[in-house]
Specification:
The chain is an alpha/beta fold. 46% of the residues lie in helices and 17% in strands. The protein folds into two domains: 8-170, Spore Coat Polysaccharide Biosynthesis Protein SpsA, Chain A, CATH 3.90.550.10; 181-212 and 225-282, no CATH class.
Length: 283
């Protein structure tokens, strides 16, 4: 174990990610093998084989804690971190396989005095002091929770940074990104529609709710840790949700996406993965 680092609470929520969940958990325990950590997962009553996988892992792995609770992702993350005993919470996604950049990201955070004690997000991961989460009440009870948490931590002057580099490979079945996640086949037909409506309602009026200039937030929170390949990490253009007029224009785009081009999205996704793999080999 790396004695220079504190005990970490690796926290995740899960819904119908059984297609990659077992591999993800094994990946976390392998890639963070040099760290002292516990893994806390909250399952939102998945309809696939997720809970069976979680029960099996509970028997196989140490410091593995599983909770079953019907909840949105934001509340699920709160439940997870509140059941952890760690002072630093590491948020991960159960549909992601993490690369060697992930442990480097964690070590860099604790080695840099200008970062340690602040919160930081990267692609598919984040590190948050428990004290900061407690101070703002944790994640909001939202599906689109990451930017909400980022802005609230920033507004509270608790220290917030964002590093636009993916810490692993997301294994969604189509190139959904954050905007088009509702198209994922892990949701049923009715679930897709409800998730789309629910998430868009959450995002409408975000600037008014936060009362901030998002461009100022972007400029202040972005940071370069000088490893990995920066990417357009955040697919959601939050400015499109600030007024009804802008949203209705954006809604037309989303309708076209939802109605006709899942196959095209899949092809884009496959081509992007090929480009990233070639870029990694070239680097």
């Amino acid at each position: 174990m790396d004695n220079e680092l504190p005990f970490l609470g690796v926290c995740a929520t899960n819904y119908n990610c059984g297609f990659v969940l077992g591999e993800h958990i094994d990946n976390i325990y392998s890639i963070l093998g040099d760290f002292d950590f516990e893994y806390v997962i909250v399952d939102n009553y998945s309809k696939d084989n997720s809970w069976k996988i979680i029960e099996r892992k509970s028997e196989e792995l140490k410091n593995f804690h599983a909770i079953r609770k019907r909840c949105k992702r934001g509340r699920g993350r709160n439940i997870a971190y509140q059941h952890s005993t760690a002072d630093y919470i590491v948020a991960v996604d159960t549909d992601t396989i993490y690369s060697d950049l992930f442990p480097l990201f964690i070590r860099t955070y604790f080695q840099r005095s200008d970062l340690r004690g602040k919160s930081i997000r990267a692609g598919f991961a984040g590190i948050y002091p428990r004290s900061s989460l407690d101070a703002i009440g944790g994640w909001g009870n939202l599906n689109s929770d990451d930017w909400d948490l980022t802005v609230r931590i920033w507004k509270a002057n608790l220290g917030m940074k964002v590093y636009p580099v993916r810490m692993g490979k997301n294994v969604k079945d189509i190139a959904t990104g954050s905007d088009m996640d509702f198209l994922s086949s892990r949701y049923g037909t009715i679930e897709k529609m409800l998730r789309w409506i629910n998430t868009d309602i959450e995002r409408l009026g975000t600037n008014r709710r936060w009362n901030v200039d998002l461009n100022e937030v972007y400029k202040d929170v972005m940071i370069d840790l000088e490893f990995g390949i920066p990417t357009r990490l955040f697919y959601t253009n939050l400015d499109d949700y600030t007024t009804i007029r802008r949203y209705l224009r954006y809604l037309r785009y989303k309708v076209f996406m939802a109605l006709g081009i899942q196959y095209t999205l899949q092809k884009w996704h496959e081509e992007r993965l090929v480009r990233e793999e070639q870029g990694n080999k070239g680097g």
